[in-house]
DNA sequence: ATCTCCCGCCATATG
DNA sequence: CATATGGCGGGAGAT
């Protein structure tokens, strides 16, 4: 019927931006939007071209051209159906590119960045419906916000960093990592026992438990307040998009298969109701979302090959999100709202409404100080949540923040604490956290720096240094306050996600970071569950990006972006205020407490003004330096690398960490992740085996208790950071331990299972699990796994770790747990 | 056949 | 009530 212009397909046509042609009748093109300030930046154009001109398309186009012999339409109608707009040309992804091309990534406040849906739809000549699809996901990233009926405000990537951070946090709170594990485990089981008596694995229950319904995650974004119009209840596409992104952010290899994503997004609730159609629909939506995210270059399509064939998946290619960044918002905020400490204190989560309204009735009380802030926001979206309450959470992070702003905050914090306590008994933990200090400083990777963690470290970090450093040393020095308390010893637990097996490798004791080109990833987490893996290569897969022009370009772009973002966010010194999700959760609802797995509702973030550009210059390098280097390093050997274990951020070791560690362990029953623990201190101090400080003791204790490490093994803590307020730890520790016991057993069983299956052949592994079997104290054993990525694809990597079987020994208490194989291939 | 995912009906929300 | 939004899923192009 329609006779589209033929061969629109020519590359030229495609490249040409938006629809040069058409619309004879309708309103003429509107000049208005096309102003000098126009969005088209060289970058964007380039970007667009690159992305658009994918090889596939190009080849396709060529074919077409040949066939047509360039004639547009002339000959015969034989061209019949060949109509052009081959499906691909109408793809959401391409459309999205066009859309994005219209606006600058980083619009200046000055320009009018308004988006009129009608116009856009018209100009791009697509149905409005499609525009909604795009806008909705952009909205989920806070790249746009709705102003009113037909109008949206374009924010570009200014908020992206914060958004991602928030999403990551929420994802962590929602225990997506565990959910993913569960799902994978389930699949695994199915494969195995065909009999399938799906053991009523608690796993399920876990998942089902949480079924948290989450609503839109709000982020502090600029004019978000104005977005009064937005939102309503469902927002499914938006929410879905956020969840999808969260999955990437919490996954260690940042690869998420559609299947897994769909399952999680779907039934966050019920056990698998293998509702086929529902699943299908979900997948469709995910594709839609993925297309947009791909256009944003946040993800790219890959395939994961597992035992059962290859499945479509996507790999995160966007900026990595720092684990601990909690400080970011605060920092920003503080700058923004210097006066009201309280406000500044509020960090995302605190402000949150319940994203995940867990079934439980959670009654949060809003902290007075927050009320004002929240109030306005709430008005805007009052209608949105039918939810009666918009709980505001205040948590430990606040306390932490105190450190930063000692004087001012003090009172506030005090208040906060009281309130918290009042709210829930569970809050007790919070106290602990506050003492913890958090300074992120970059860890010196290879070069151990003698100096104190403080600012010193950060200063000259090589590119590889951790991003965490987020704050430049300069800042640190500037605001000494930040490091109020002595640094706490920070230990980090490294674990491997079973599901995402990747190469595991040993890490060097010295913590050298190496960009692991191939290694994708092991997960490294700080105790408090923040992942520190900045190191992972972006190109992650062992792919060598070098030759691909596109990639290189993207890389560059990325760099640019990163630096920018980092600069923004690093306005302040490093304080890693970490917040503990755990704590938050605990206090949030008591009921859920019992099941450790229960999810707690999280809130949405209240938008704070976004940070202005402050001194960006100073830190350009810190944050993502690692990435940059990584990118460059693409040429590096395919081998899986060493797992960089270092934990850059010195976080206070808080109790939460303990909780978390166990959780992680227990959660991944399937393959069980290894939990290597390291202290970042080692970086500074050459010796790893220094005497344990309290924190390390606790940690060791915990680990031992859980059975992850042998009694003899000890995890060193960072000397510098030592004074972690350990005081209360015992309680917490015990507490967590208790919870974990059950889990412990399961974990073991799982391990055994693995062994049975032959996945683990190592005695070592077992022995390591046995507390009774002491091993060399200083050298815990590692169970290495064969993870492999099989060859075949560019991505394939073999585990570098030398001795194939878990014989490797890793210097400091590192435990690696075996995994299943998994291959990732591009495209 | 499977993977992608476009198209657009039609229920809802908004104004 | 007229529109603006946006679930949803059929079904077809791409592989």
For the record, give the distance between the C-alpha atoms at the N and C termini, rounded to a whole number: 34 Å
Alpha plus pi helix count = 31
Strand order of the largest sheet: 4-6-5-12
Mean pLDDT: 45
Radius of gyration: 26 Å
Segments where pLDDT lies below 50 for 5+ residues? Answer: 1-79, 194-211, 221-229, 325-820
The total of beta strands comes to 12
Largest sheet: 4 strands, antiparallel
In one word, what is the shape?
globular
Structural class: alpha+beta
Helix content: 40-55%
Estimated share of beta-strand residues: 5-15%
List the helices and strands and how they pair.
Layout: H1 11-15, H2 42-52, H3 55-68, H4 92-101, E1 114-116, H5 117-123, H6 128-140, E2 144-148, E3 151-154, H7 160-173, H8 176-192, H9 202-210, H10 236-250, E4 255-257, H11 258-266, H12 276-295, E5 299-306, E6 309-316, H13 326-336, H14 341-345, H15 348-351, H16 368-381, H17 396-404, H18 406-423, H19 428-435, E7 439-440, H20 455-459, H21 473-478, E8 491-495, E9 523-526, H22 549-569, H23 581-588, H24 590-594, H25 620-623, H26 625-632, E10 649-650, H27 655-667, E11 677-679, H28 681-684, H29 694-706, H30 729-757, H31 763-769, E12 823-826
Antiparallel strand pairs: 1-3, 2-3, 4-6, 5-6, 5-12, 7-10, 8-9, 8-11
Helix pairs in contact: 2-4, 2-22, 4-6, 4-12, 5-6, 6-10, 6-12, 7-10, 8-9, 8-11, 10-12, 11-12, 17-18, 17-19, 22-26, 27-30, 29-30
The structure holds a DNA duplex (15 and 15 nucleotides).
């Amino acid at each position: 019927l329609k006779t589209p212009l033929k061969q629109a397909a020519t590359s030229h046509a495609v490249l040409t931006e938006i629809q040069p042609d058409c619309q004879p009748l309708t309103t003429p093109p509107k000049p208005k939007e096309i102003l000098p300030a126009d969005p088209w930046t060289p970058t964007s154009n380039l970007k667009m071209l690159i992305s658009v001109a994918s090889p596939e398309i190009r080849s396709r186009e060529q074919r077409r051209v040949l066939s047509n012999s360039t004639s547009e339409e002339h000959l015969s109608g034989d061209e019949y159906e060949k109509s052009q707009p081959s499906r691909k040309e109408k793809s959401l992804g391409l459309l999205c590119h066009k859309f994005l091309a219209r606006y600058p990534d980083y619009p200046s406040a000055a320009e009018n960045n308004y988006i009129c849906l009608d116009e856009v739809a018209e100009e791009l000549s697509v149905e409005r419906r499609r525009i909604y699809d795009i806008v909705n996901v952009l909205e989920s990233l806070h790249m746009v916000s709705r102003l009113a009926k037909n109008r949206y405000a374009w924010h570009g990537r200014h908020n992206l960093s914060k958004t991602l951070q928030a999403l990551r946090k929420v994802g962590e709170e929602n225990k997506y990592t565990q959910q993913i594990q569960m799902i994978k485990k389930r699949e695994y089981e199915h494969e195995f026992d065909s009999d399938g008596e799906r053991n009523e694995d608690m796993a399920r229950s876990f998942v089902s438990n949480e079924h948290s319904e989450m609503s839109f995650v709000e982020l502090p974004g600029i004019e978000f307040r104005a977005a009064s119009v937005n939102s309503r209840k469902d927002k499914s596409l938006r929410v879905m998009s956020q969840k999808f992104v969260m999955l990437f952010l919490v996954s260690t290899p940042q690869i998420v298969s559609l299947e897994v994503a769909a399952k999680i997004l779907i039934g966050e609730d019920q056990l698998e109701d293998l509702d086929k159609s529902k699943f299908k629909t979900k997948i469709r939506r995910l594709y839609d979302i993925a297309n947009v995210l791909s256009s944003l270059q946040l993800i790219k399509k890959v395939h994961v090959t597992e035992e059962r064939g290859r499945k479509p998946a996507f790999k995160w290619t966007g900026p990595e999100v720092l684990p601990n960044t909690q400080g970011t918002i605060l920092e920003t905020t503080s700058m923004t709202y210097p006066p009201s400490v309280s406000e500044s204190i509020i960090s995302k989560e605190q402000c949150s409404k319940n994203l995940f309204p867990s079934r439980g009735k959670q009654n949060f009380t809003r902290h007075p100080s927050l009320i004002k802030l929240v109030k306005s926001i709430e008005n805007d979206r009052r209608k949105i949540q039918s939810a009666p309450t918009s709980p505001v959470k205040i948590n430990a992070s606040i306390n932490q923040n105190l450190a930063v702003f000692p004087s001012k905050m003090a009172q506030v914090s005090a208040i906060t604490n009281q309130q918290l306590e009042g709210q829930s008994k569970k809050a007790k933990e919070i106290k602990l956290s506050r003492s913890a200090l958090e300074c992120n400083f970059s860890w010196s990777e290879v070069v151990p720096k003698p100096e104190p963690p403080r600012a010193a470290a950060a200063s000259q970090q090589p590119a590889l240094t951790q991003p965490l450093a987020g704050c430049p040393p300069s800042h640190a020095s500037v605001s000494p306050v930040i490091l109020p308390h002595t640094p706490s010893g920070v230990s980090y637990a490294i674990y491997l996600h079973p599901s995402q097996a990747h190469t595991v490798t040993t890490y060097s004791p010295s913590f050298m970071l190496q960009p692991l080109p191939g290694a994708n990833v092991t997960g490294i987490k700080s105790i408090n569950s923040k992942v520190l893996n900045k190191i992972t290569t972006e190109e992650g897969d062992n792919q060598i990006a070098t030759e691909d022009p596109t990639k290189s370009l993207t890389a560059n772009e990325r760099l640019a972006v990163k630096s920018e973002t980092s600069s923004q966010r690093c306005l302040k010194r490093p304080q890693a205020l970490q917040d503990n999700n755990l704590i938050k959760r605990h206090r949030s609802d008591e009921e859920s407490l019992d099941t450790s797995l229960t999810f707690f509702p999280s809130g949405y973030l209240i938008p704070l003004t976004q940070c202005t550009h402050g001194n960006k210059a100073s830190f350009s390098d810190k944050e993502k330096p690692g990435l940059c280097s990584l990118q460059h390093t693409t040429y590096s050997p395919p081998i899986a690398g060493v797992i960089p274990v270092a934990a850059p951020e010195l976080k206070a070791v808080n109790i939460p960490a303990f909780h978390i560690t166990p959780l992680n362990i227990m959660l991944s029953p399937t393959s069980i992740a290894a939990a290597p623990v390291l202290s970042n201190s080692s970086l500074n101090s050459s010796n790893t085996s220094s005497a344990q400080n309290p924190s390390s003791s606790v940690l060791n204790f915990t680990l031992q208790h859980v059975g992850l490490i042998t009694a003899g093994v000890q995890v060193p803590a960072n000397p510098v950071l030592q004074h972690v307020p350990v005081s209360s730890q015992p309680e917490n520790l015990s507490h967590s331990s208790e919870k974990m016991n059950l889990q412990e057993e399961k974990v073991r069983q799982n391990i055994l299972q693995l062994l049975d299956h032959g996945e683990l052949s190592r005695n070592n592994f077992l022995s390591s699990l046995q507390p009774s079997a002491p091993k060399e104290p200083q050298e815990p054993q590692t169970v290495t796994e064969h993870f492999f990525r099989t060859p075949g694809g560019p991505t394939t990597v073999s585990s570098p770790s030398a001795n194939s079987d878990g014989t490797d020994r890793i210097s400091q208490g590192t435990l690696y747990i075996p995994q299943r194989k998994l291959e990732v291939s591009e495209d």
